[in-house]
Amino acid sequence: MIDLRTATAKDAEALTDLHLDVWDDAYSGLMPQSVLDQRRADRAAAVERRRAWLTADPDVWLAVDDGRLVGFANAGPARDDDPPAQLELKALYVRASHYSTGLGRRLLGQVLGDRPAYLWVLAGNVRAVRFYERAGFSFDGAGFDEPEGRHLRMVRT
């Protein structure tokens, strides 16, 4: 059984490694490889940023399978200037080895429940789009470009 628990600053290194791995799982072929490579090159600084983040924002949920991190999720107040909902899903990732196991739904339920919310998804990430559509999200037409690609907004009311 996979346990869900809140993250602490002690999880910074393992969570950073998980985040690097799940980005490779989800985004290889969808964004420039140089973006993924640079994230790995910046690992040490990312661990320190994550440690500070976990100290300031304790509402990060981890999925732990036999002592190994296999997923995480975080939601909180909207960051956009004119948000379509007051709650934003900021991150939801699981290892490819745990795709289609229900773990993503468990994490989503943990951080959002059935509350209205929005999120940003990378254009072309068909697996994620289908997952969020099944959870009641739909595109609202908003988008922006970053070095890793186009981000599209999905909203659940």
TrEMBL record:
<dbReference type="Pfam" id="PF00583">
    <property type="entry name" value="Acetyltransf_1"/>
</dbReference>
<feature type="domain" description="N-acetyltransferase">
    <location>
        <begin position="2"/>
        <end position="157"/>
    </location>
</feature>
<keyword id="KW-0808">Transferase</keyword>
<dbReference type="InterPro" id="IPR050832">
    <property type="entry name" value="Bact_Acetyltransf"/>
</dbReference>
<dbReference type="InterPro" id="IPR016181">
    <property type="entry name" value="Acyl_CoA_acyltransferase"/>
</dbReference>
<dbReference type="GO" id="GO:0016747">
    <property type="term" value="F:acyltransferase activity, transferring groups other than amino-acyl groups"/>
</dbReference>
<keyword id="KW-0012">Acyltransferase</keyword>
<dbReference type="InterPro" id="IPR000182">
    <property type="entry name" value="GNAT_dom"/>
</dbReference>
<protein>
    <submittedName>
        <fullName>GNAT family N-acetyltransferase</fullName>
    </submittedName>
</protein>
